Amino acid sequence: MVVLVNGYDVAFTLPAEDLADKDVKFMLYSIGVSPDPCGKDCGGWEMVRPIGSNTDLIEENFVTLPIKYGVTLPNMQTRVYTELRKGRYRVTASIEMIKNGKIIDSKRVGAVFTIE
Predict the structure, then answer these.
(1) 26 near 12, Cβ under 8 Å?
(2) pLDDT digits over 94-105, tens only?
(3) Residue range(s) defining the domain that contains residue 107
(4) Of 76, 64, 66, nearest to 113 (Cα)?
(5) How many domains, the chain?
(6) Residue 63 gets which letter from DSSP?
(7) 62-99 CB burial, b ≥16 within 10 A, e <16
(8) Residues 89, 65, 85, CA angle at the centre, nearest 5°?
């Protein structure tokens, strides 16, 4: 995962090699950001695809990258949200890559980043 940091504005994307094929679409299942290290109930941001929601491989379920911190996407649900402060954070996401109507890869990706 690649993290784009501009002050307190943060966005998340994938490495260029994952974005190279313009025919590949992306379906996000979850993304979470928390302070690093994190004990219990640290805050941050968590957005998930609700249980029982539509997971058909159709345009309305695909996401456009980058994903901006704190912005809830269509067909997703924000569970936790706190504003970012200076510090170190960890992000993890579960994402599927779709091409020609078929899942070609499932990834659990992550990164560590700092707000200064």
Answers:
(1) no
(2) 999 999 999 999
(3) 2-115
(4) 66
(5) 1
(6) B
(7) bbeeebebeeebebbeeeeeeebeeeebbbebbbbbbe
(8) 25
Average pLDDT, the chain: 92
What's the start-to-end Cα distance of the chain, in Å?
20
Q: Are the C-beta atoms of residues 31 and 92 closer than 8 Å to each other?
A: yes
Residues 6+ apart with CB under 8 A from 54: 60, 61, 75
> Torsion angle, CA of 65/31/101/53, rounded to 10 degrees?
-130
The pLDDT-based confidence of 53 (bands split at 50, 70, 90) is confident
Question: Do the Cβ atoms of 69 and 81 come closer than 8 Å?
Answer: no
Instruction: Round to whole Å and give the CA distance between 67 and 113.
Output: 15
Write the DSSP symbol of residue 31.
Answer: E
Give the pLDDT score at 35: 93
For the chain, what's the residue count? 116
Q: In this structure, how many other beta carbons lie within 10 angstroms of the beta carbon of residue 7?
A: 8
Structure tokens at 96: 């599927």
